[in-house]
Amino acid sequence: MPVNLPDNLPAIEILRKEHIFVMSDLRASTQDIRPLRILILNLMPLKITTETDLVRLLSNSPLQIEIEFLGLKSHTPKNTPIEHLKTFYKTFEEVEECFYDGFIVTGAPVELLPFEEVRYWKELTGIFDWARKHVTSTFYICWAGQAAMHHFYGIQKYPLEKKMFGVFSHTVNDKSFPLFRGFDDQFYAPHSRHTTVSAEEISRQPELTILSQSEEAGVYIVASRGGREFYVTGHSEYSPLTLHNEYLRDKQKGLESVELPKNYYQDNDPEKEPVVRWRSHANLLFINWLNYFVYQETPFELEKISELGELS
């Protein structure tokens, strides 16, 4: 099934060139089926790139999906045209009374700040609280995962001596957990962050379950409320060249601590193409989330989401 996107979203033409089926609002309205409603709060600076990366993964599901984008009132991005934001992004006031099958919150380049010093922290945590009553399952990525665990459970983040940067091997703690159906015993995912969370601290919280870890990158995926919330510390949604572009960006800034992303370039040579090790598991991760924790759990009447408890 295709992804239903707002007319003229830049991601549409990019994805069509990749032979990914997307449809306009007009065509979708003629299909006699209730699509899954997915809301994306995009906190990344390069919003069009992130939109495309996420839609690419969501499009691989056999389910029809209707995507909306959410922006913050208390933060105006500098790297995305204001016309794009006005055309494709809704304010919280516009969605506050709505219900969604799924919600994705991206990372943000503010991880070195204390949470409470982030300019939009109050608005963001208000949205986190809203999601618990208006969304079947929420998928928090990177800094958003750290922020949500801190807000709900008091989990702290800790600065790393050097940036966790590259593609790392991970294992699954419970192979029967539906989110990892079809996964190999070892799988790869990109990371790009300056902070980490403590597995020991998370384990002391009875409502949190560490589902996947990496010897080198640490905690990867944490769940709460039976799968109504997932906290993912890495970037499985990254496209093949995202880490390369970040590496070049940091070098151009003259940062002395910039290192090559690990396990990424052929022969560890930045002049050669990256080796993409994470694409299949990234697709499985999002497909399984949509299937087992959104589609199979969400009520047909979205308003009844507020009546859901923990997922079984």
From TrEMBL:
<feature type="site" description="Important for substrate specificity">
    <location>
        <position position="192"/>
    </location>
</feature>
<feature type="active site" description="Acyl-thioester intermediate">
    <location>
        <position position="142"/>
    </location>
</feature>
<dbReference type="GO" id="GO:0019281">
    <property type="term" value="P:L-methionine biosynthetic process from homoserine via O-succinyl-L-homoserine and cystathionine"/>
</dbReference>
<keyword id="KW-0028">Amino-acid biosynthesis</keyword>
<dbReference type="Pfam" id="PF04204">
    <property type="entry name" value="HTS"/>
</dbReference>
<feature type="binding site">
    <location>
        <position position="249"/>
    </location>
    <ligand>
        <name>substrate</name>
    </ligand>
</feature>
<feature type="site" description="Important for acyl-CoA specificity">
    <location>
        <position position="111"/>
    </location>
</feature>
<dbReference type="GO" id="GO:0008899">
    <property type="term" value="F:homoserine O-succinyltransferase activity"/>
</dbReference>
<keyword id="KW-0808">Transferase</keyword>
<comment type="pathway">
    <text>Amino-acid biosynthesis; L-methionine biosynthesis via de novo pathway; O-acetyl-L-homoserine from L-homoserine: step 1/1.</text>
</comment>
<keyword id="KW-0486">Methionine biosynthesis</keyword>
<dbReference type="GO" id="GO:0004414">
    <property type="term" value="F:homoserine O-acetyltransferase activity"/>
</dbReference>
<keyword id="KW-0012">Acyltransferase</keyword>
<keyword id="KW-0963">Cytoplasm</keyword>
<feature type="active site" description="Proton acceptor">
    <location>
        <position position="235"/>
    </location>
</feature>
<dbReference type="InterPro" id="IPR033752">
    <property type="entry name" value="MetA_family"/>
</dbReference>
<protein>
    <recommendedName>
        <fullName>Homoserine O-acetyltransferase</fullName>
        <ecNumber>2.3.1.31</ecNumber>
    </recommendedName>
</protein>
<comment type="similarity">
    <text>Belongs to the MetA family.</text>
</comment>
<feature type="binding site">
    <location>
        <position position="163"/>
    </location>
    <ligand>
        <name>substrate</name>
    </ligand>
</feature>
<comment type="function">
    <text>Transfers an acetyl group from acetyl-CoA to L-homoserine, forming acetyl-L-homoserine.</text>
</comment>
<dbReference type="InterPro" id="IPR005697">
    <property type="entry name" value="HST_MetA"/>
</dbReference>
<dbReference type="InterPro" id="IPR029062">
    <property type="entry name" value="Class_I_gatase-like"/>
</dbReference>
<feature type="active site">
    <location>
        <position position="237"/>
    </location>
</feature>
<feature type="binding site">
    <location>
        <position position="192"/>
    </location>
    <ligand>
        <name>substrate</name>
    </ligand>
</feature>
<dbReference type="GO" id="GO:0005737">
    <property type="term" value="C:cytoplasm"/>
</dbReference>
